[in-house]
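Saturday, quiet lab. Running sequence design on the structure tokens for the scaffold JK sent over.
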């Protein structure tokens, strides 16, 4: 029941990127995964800038897995810019981070995160958590048409 929309994974840690991709594969998630390794790359992907100039921006991700501690543009600023633009304001965003800081949790929800999940440090639990997140957002959650707010 996967959608044709990609998953946008915004992650600067190569180990966490590999683990997330492995978890999606292990859970038979067939959606394309676009990896942005910093916040600016994520924004460029979403809005058709930089190396993504000319990308069909009417095809938005089914879900964004967003780390907070990112180079160039941090995750909270990415979230702020997403919610400020009507083209991306309703996209599902799951903050997937190591941060346990109460102010990060509060600010992420204040800015419109749909969920805030701390990355498990245990390998198997990480795989299970990412798999469950993907299953929920791709197979159970009603995505709607995010191109027409």
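Result came back. Writing it out in full:
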């Amino acid at each position: 029941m996967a959608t044709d929309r990609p998953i946008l994974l915004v992650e600067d840690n190569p180990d966490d990127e590999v683990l997330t991709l492995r978890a999606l594969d292990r859970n038979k998630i067939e959606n394309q995964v676009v990896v942005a390794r910093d916040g600016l790359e994520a924004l460029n992907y979403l809005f058709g800038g930089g190396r993504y100039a000319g990308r069909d921006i009417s095809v938005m991700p089914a879900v964004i897995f967003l780390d907070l501690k990112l180079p160039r543009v941090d995750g909270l600023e990415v979230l702020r810019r997403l919610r400020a633009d009507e083209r991306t304001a309703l996209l599902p965003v799951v903050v997937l981070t190591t941060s346990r800081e109460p102010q990060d949790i509060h600010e992420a929800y204040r800015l419109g995160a749909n969920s805030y999940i701390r990355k498990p440090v245990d390998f198997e639990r990480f795989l299970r958590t990412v798999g469950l997140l993907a299953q929920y957002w791709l197979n159970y959650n009603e995505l709607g048409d995010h191109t027409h707010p």
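Notes for JK: The longest helix spans residues 123-140. The chain has one domain: 7-139. Ask whether to fix the surface positions before the next round.
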